[in-house]
Amino acid sequence: MPPRWPRKPDRNDPEFRKLDDRMNFAIHVAIFAASNSGIWFFRNLTAASWPWAIWVTGGWVSLLLIHGVYIFVLADYGSTTKDSA
CA 1 → CA 4, 13, 16, 59, distances in Å? Predict the structure, then answer.
């Protein structure tokens, strides 16, 4: 069941932005898992030497770690104030 939001979704809402960023991170992890499991499955199936598979996986894991640190540690989801000019 998809998450339900009790009010109109607005990217300026800190709680919605936090939830949206975490769902976005979960999608990135799922795409990483599906893609890399396919790469390593076919690498082992063909018994071919794919040296680039290590670099793709390592680079992607690094990017996911950076993304995760930002989302779960560094991101500030404090209330945003709009300037009424």
Answer: 9, 23, 18, 33
**Percent of the chain at pLDDT above 70?**
88
Extract long-range pairs of 54-62: CB within 8 Å, 24+ residues apart: 60/32, 60/35, 60/36, 61/32
For residue 68, tell me if it sits in a domain.
Answer: yes
* Number of domains forming the structure of the chain: 1
1 lies in a domain? no
Q: What is the pLDDT of residues 49-76, one digit of tens each?
A: 888 988 999 999 999 999 999 998 887 8
CA–CA distance, 71 with 25 (Å, rounded to integer):
8
Residue 81 covered by a domain: no
Domain hosting 18: range is 14-74
Task: Locate the DSSP E strands across the chain.
Answer: none
